[in-house]
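ok so I'm stuck.
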Amino acid sequence: MATGYKSGGRTKGTPNKTTEKAREMFNEVMADQLHKNRINVALDELYDESKTKYLYVFNKLAQYFLPKRMDITSDGEQLEGFKVEITKDADKDKTV
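replied:
not stuck anymore, here's the structure
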C-alpha cells in the first residue's frame, strides 16, 4: 500500500450500504409511528406539559423534513443589519 494513496474500499461517490439500510429502517419506523398517530399524540401531550419543550422538539424534528434555508441574495458579502420595531396598531382599538 502506497503512503498517501487510497487503495481498496469504496470508490468516491459510492453510497455506504450500512447508512442506506439504517435510513431505510428509520423511515419505516417513522412511517409506522405516523400511521399509528403516536407522534401527534406525543407532541400534543408535550404541548400541554410545556410549550417551550414542544417548540424545542418541533424545531429538532423540522430539520429532518424541511431543507435548511440558504442565503442566495448577498453573493457571500456581509449584509447590513436591520431593525424590527413592533408598534401598537392604533386602528385595531377603534370600533367601527
